[in-house]
């Protein structure tokens, strides 16, 4: 009985195996009917390690891009992250087949074909999307043209000039180059010129707008030879509205707030000191917050740094203005101002009196010496002998000293008078006038500096 059961089981297994083999054969026949000998003939004798036209000159590869998105543009790292669709076209004479329809193959069959060794030059990090399968496209046309498309997300370096930040324009590039094949083996070209890159017209960026874009063809020079290179340039302009609302308007309002102290009495020391110190500290915090979003290591003096420095200078100047005005009230009160002017007048009159007295004394001394020195009348015979030795002949020499001393005193007094007049011009007669002048000088200066600032950074 057991032998009968085992014999029946073997027969059943044999029947099932026959049915499976017949179903597999039928499936192979059906697949052969859809793609009869085409793929088999194309792959027969095909060597993927040899490029097309191996002995007949370089193979030309045409490229086009579709920018799906530009995710981030970082000023700190000086790079941008973009997702692109890279399409490459070339002709392989070994893949020519009869027919008028192209063959779309599974992306995994790319391992059986020769493809260009294209890479992104300034890429820091890149990856190929593989959900749900690797995002590759292979399409073969009857004339042997191969279309190979990839979906890539890449982070590319972009050197930025931040001297006019946030009113700057940045020009970034995306460079495609052959890694191993030089210009004798592979030639790159844009399939439709500047129109080879699409997707930028509908692109929405957070802080930038795309001003212009264009393509170019060049050659990369290395020690190992010349290599083909395609370059895509695009110009980004930063939107300044965010920075106006975030930085420029608050800093300008802080400057205006510091001017409120000019309308407060000089005797209100706590009120004026509170306004000055508060605005200075708030401006310092605003400056620190504006710099956190930018690289600390770069050497650029940015436009926003210049404006914040200007605002901080005006706020600090308003605080110093009160210190000067308050010091003038302590050292030169109103009661002493008139006394100071009266003393200046008395000093000037006294100097004039000194000069007059000195001149009178010199004339008196001259008159006293003349009758004492003049000899009595003598006969003519004795004059000839006395005149050489008479003291009257040597007396005019000491008389020359009083005029020299008088001139020196006059020069000294004139110099002192000029110094005193200069001090009187610089002297503030009324400390309350300092606030009156500041109410006009500070706003006018701030408006003029703003005109120069915006003219330079926007139009120069």
From TrEMBL:
Recorded catalytic activity of this chain's protein: chloride(in) = chloride(out)
Signal sequence, renumbered to the chain: 1-22
GO molecular function, one term: GABA-gated chloride ion channel activity
Membrane-spanning parts: 240-266, 273-294, 306-330, 440-459
Keyword check for Secreted: no
SUPFAM superfamilies: Neurotransmitter-gated ion-channel transmembrane pore, Nicotinic receptor ligand binding domain-like
Lipid bilayer topology: Multi-pass membrane protein
Main subcellular location: membrane
Compartment(s) of residence: Apical cell membrane
Domain Neurotransmitter-gated ion-channel transmembrane: 247-454
Domain (Neurotransmitter-gated ion-channel ligand-binding) ranges: 39-239
Record keywords, A-Z: Cell membrane, Chloride, Chloride channel, Disulfide bond, Glycoprotein, Ion channel, Ion transport, Membrane, Signal, Transmembrane, Transmembrane helix, Transport
Gene3D superfamilies recorded: Neurotransmitter-gated ion-channel ligand-binding domain, Neurotransmitter-gated ion-channel transmembrane domain
GO cellular component, as recorded: apical plasma membrane; chloride channel complex
Regions of compositional bias (Basic residues) in chain numbering: 360-369
Stretches for region Disordered: 359-405
Subunit organization: Heteropentamer, formed by a combination of alpha (GABRA1-6), beta (GABRB1-3), gamma (GABRG1-3), delta (GABRD), epsilon (GABRE), rho (GABRR1-3), pi (GABRP) and theta (GABRQ) chains, each subunit exhibiting distinct physiological and pharmacological properties.
NCBIfam families assigned: LIC
Protein family membership: Belongs to the ligand-gated ion channel (TC 1.A.9) family. Gamma-aminobutyric acid receptor (TC 1.A.9.5) subfamily. GABRP sub-subfamily.
Biological role stated in the UniProt entry: Pi subunit of the heteropentameric ligand-gated chloride channel gated by gamma-aminobutyric acid (GABA). GABA-gated chloride channels, also named GABA(A) receptors (GABAAR), consist of five subunits arranged around a central pore and contain GABA active binding site(s) located at the alpha and beta subunit interfaces. When activated by GABA, GABAARs selectively allow the flow of chloride anions across the cell membrane down their electrochemical gradient. Pi-containing GABAARs are mostly located in peripheral tissues.
UniProt protein name: Gamma-aminobutyric acid receptor subunit pi
Organism: Kryptolebias marmoratus (Mangrove killifish)
């Amino acid at each position: 009985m057991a032998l009968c059961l085992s014999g029946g089981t073997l027969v059943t297994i044999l029947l099932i195996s026959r049915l499976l083999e017949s179903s597999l054969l039928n499936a192979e026949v059906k697949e052969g009917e859809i793609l009869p000998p085409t793929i088999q003939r194309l792959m027969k004798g095909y060597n993927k390690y040899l490029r097309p036209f191996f002995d007949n000159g370089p193979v030309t590869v045409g490229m086009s891009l579709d920018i799906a998105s530009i995710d981030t543009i970082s000023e700190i790292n000086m790079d941008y992250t973009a997702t692109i669709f890279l399409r490459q076209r070339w002709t392989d004479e070994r893949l020519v087949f009869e027919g008028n329809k192209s063959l779309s193959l599974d992306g995994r069959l790319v391992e059986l074909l020769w493809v260009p060794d294209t890479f992104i030059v300034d890429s820091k990090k890149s990856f190929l999307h593989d959900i749900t399968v690797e995002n590759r496209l292979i399409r073969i046309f009857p004339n042997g043209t191969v279309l190979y498309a990839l979906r890539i997300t890449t982070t590319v370096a972009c050197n930025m000039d931040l001297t006019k930040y946030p009113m700057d324009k940045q020009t970034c590039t995306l460079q495609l180059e052959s890694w191993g094949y030089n210009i004798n083996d592979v030639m790159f070209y844009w399939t439709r010129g500047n129109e080879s890159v699409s997707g930028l017209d509908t692109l929405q960026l957070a802080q930038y707008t795309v001003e212009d874009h264009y393509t170019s063809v060049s050659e990369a020079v290395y020690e190992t030879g010349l290599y083909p290179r395609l370059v895509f340039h695009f110009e980004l302009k930063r939107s300044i509205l965010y920075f106006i609302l975030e930085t420029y308007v608050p800093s300008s309002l802080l400057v205006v707030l510091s001017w409120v102290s000019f309308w407060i009495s000089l005797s209100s020391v706590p009120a004026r000191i509170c306004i000055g110190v508060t605005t200075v500290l708030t401006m310092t915090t605003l400056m620190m917050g504006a710099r956190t979003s930018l690289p600390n290591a770069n050497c650029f003096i940015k436009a926003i740094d210049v404006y914040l420095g200007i605002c901080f200078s005006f706020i600090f100047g308003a605080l110093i203005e009160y210190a000067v005005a308050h010091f003038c009230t302590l050292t030169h009160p109103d009661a002493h101002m008139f006394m100071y002017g009266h003393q200046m007048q008395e000093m000037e009159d006294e100097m004039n009196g000194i000069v007059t007295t000195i001149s009178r004394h010199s004339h008196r001394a001259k008159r006293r010496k003349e009758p004492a020195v003049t000899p009595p009348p003598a006969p003519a015979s004795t004059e000839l002998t006395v005149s050489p030795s008479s003291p009257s002949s040597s007396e005019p020499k000491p008389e020359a000293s009083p005029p020299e001393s008088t001139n020196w005193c006059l020069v000294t007094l004139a110099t002192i008078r000029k110094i005193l007049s200069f001090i009187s011009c610089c002297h503030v007669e009324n400390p309350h006038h300092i606030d009156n002048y500041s109410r006009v000088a500070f706003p006018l200066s701030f408006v003029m500096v703003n005109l120069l600032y915006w003219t330079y950074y926007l139009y120069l």
